[in-house]
Amino acid sequence: MEEPSSSSTVTESAIISPEEENSNEPPLKKLKGEHSYGIILHQSKDRLESRLTSVLSCVVCFDLPSGAIYQCIHGHLMCTGCFNHLLADGRLKNEQATCPSCRAEISSKNASRNLAVEKAVSELPTYCKYCKEEFARNLVPIHEHDSCEQRPSFCSYKNLGCLWDGMYHQIESHEKECLFPQKTGTDLLESVTTLASEASEEVERLTGMLKMFSYEKIAICDVQLSPSRSDDYIPKLYYETNRFSAFDQLWMIKAKVKGNETSYNRSMVYQLVLKGKGCFEVKYFLLKGPFGDANIQSEIQRFEFRDDNKDSEYHPLILKGEEECNRLLAARTVHIRMLMFLVKK
User: Fold this and answer.
1) Is the N or the C terminus of the chain less surrounded, counting Cβ atoms within 10 Å?
2) Domain 69-146, CATH among 3.30.40.10, 3.90.180.10, 3.40.50.300, 3.30.450.20
3) Is the pTM of this model over 0.85?
4) What span, in angstroms and rounded, lies between the C-alpha atoms of 300 and 285?
5) Torsion of CA 163, 164, 167, 169, to 10 degrees
6) pLDDT of 127-183, one tens digit each?
């Protein structure tokens, strides 16, 4: 019996398809290489982001800054909140603020912003606090405010008294079942009255301010609050302005800080002081000065100044945000505008 030739004994595993014949590498080896290379890239990316995060973090709070980034003369980075807090601590302690890493002196003059780091941090990825999707840091605020389907939202009939709150993507289904559009005026009267009362209080406050501008004598004074130290055994920080003229009299504004160098919730209070003689009943309130950036909420105050009582009581300086007080303490001076209205007797 004739033995089969070698050409007729080719096994099935040795058969090469036209696609495999034209390829440079075996299919299995190519897939395995792609998979391994992808894992390496992913791990390398994670390590790079981790290294950048550790390098670019604030040396005080160890978080990546979200806004302006300051640096000491040796390049150590600090976020705005921590930078202002260090300067405020130094002001309260009557000491020179220093960098916590190298102890170099820092101030609003010798510390500078690092714009390159700010741009680099804004491009690093982070996660939406609602949906946990990944975005560049400079895009997250826009996404969380306008685009995220899981951002906190309220019913469109909130002004009618509906207290529902939930995710944005749930609004449509809720409003289809919301009972407030079908309620009668009598049913809605209580909730609407409460909301109208709150709004009328604000309108009344603003109307009262507007009416004061019809007074016969009005004084507008732009002044600066400058830091000083008391003569106590332990000197205390306080602020005061130079004397300014209003209603043919000399006046002064004094302010002090509530909370010491270890406090995180600091606030400021102020008083108006008459430096002359006479009897005056005055309405007054503070505004942000023309060269300042303090976010002050105006509150009308009223006081009768007499020869035996020339200092008004202390009023809270209502600031916007918890970090605003530290920012004012960090500044060399605080620019404010005082509006005074003489009340006729």
Assistant:
1) N
2) 3.30.40.10
3) no
4) 5
5) -130
6) 999 999 999 999 999 999 999 999 999 998 888 888 899 999 999 999 999 988 888
